[in-house]
Amino acid sequence: MSDGPHVWRADVHDADVVAQLLIAFRDHIGRDWPSDNAFHAGVDRLLEIRDCDFLLAAPSAGEPAVAVCQLRYSFSVWRAGTECVLEDLYVTPDARRGGYGATLVQAALARARERDCRWIELDTHEDNAPAIALYERHGFRIGRGPGARDIVLAQPLD
């Protein structure tokens, strides 16, 4: 009997699993780019540097991963320390509502604290009510300060 999802920090031996879960996420959100090869190469590259972690979750130790979370770290002059971006969190459709998302958010918070991060943030689509509810249950708030509702502005450079 399992005590809940098993979570671990991915290493180079988990690269294919991480890439496949991120490809499934890409497909889930209706995109066809980056290519599968680009995901595999990107995961390999990120697993070699210290500024990124991938967390994986499975029903129990030894079982295949059904969820992934990507964390990126950088120093912020505005925080006078390291901040963390929870870049991606994806749970396979068959595993949803099984506690994997909550377990990964808790693990992400713990990992950011281990890395002495002073701040953690993420973005999600404004229509993704289940994700917003999940993140709010774990203390995330919309905006960076009291009453603030930040917006994200972006521009492709390629």
TrEMBL record:
Keywords: Acyltransferase, Transferase. Residues 5-158 form the N-acetyltransferase domain. It comes from the Bacteria. The keyword Mitochondrion does not apply. It holds the Pfam family Acetyltransf_1. The keyword Acyltransferase applies. GO terms for molecular function: acyltransferase activity, transferring groups other than amino-acyl groups. This is GCN5-related N-acetyltransferase.
